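REVIEWER CHECKLIST
Item 1: Sequence provided? yes
Item 2: Single chain? yes
Item 3: Sequence as submitted:
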Amino acid sequence: MTKDRPETELIAFIRNPDVVLREEDPDGALLFNPDTNQIRVINPSGLFIWKLCDGFHTVPMIVSELREAFDGVPEADVESQVQAFIDDMKTNGFIGLQVDQANPIE
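Item 4: Structure as written out by the authors:
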């Protein structure tokens, strides 16, 4: 963690390029990870978060964009829910970390 920015502001998330995405109508999508043979069914907000895992968006940025895109996003819970989704995706190999190389974590 740097002295002036918390760690979560420096870390962006990136989709595993091997994961296959299949969008399903307005109900969300299916993700298939061939490395682990796992499938995840994600709702529209999960799909939105998944698409923002592009190597440039940090958790605070994803939360901000989620609030703008969806009506009725709960102020109190959204950041913890986004973090829980990302943690699950990371733990199961669906996404990884992209560390800000210009300002590495110390």
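Item 5: Key structural point noted by reviewer: The mean pLDDT is 85.
Item 6: Recommendation: ____
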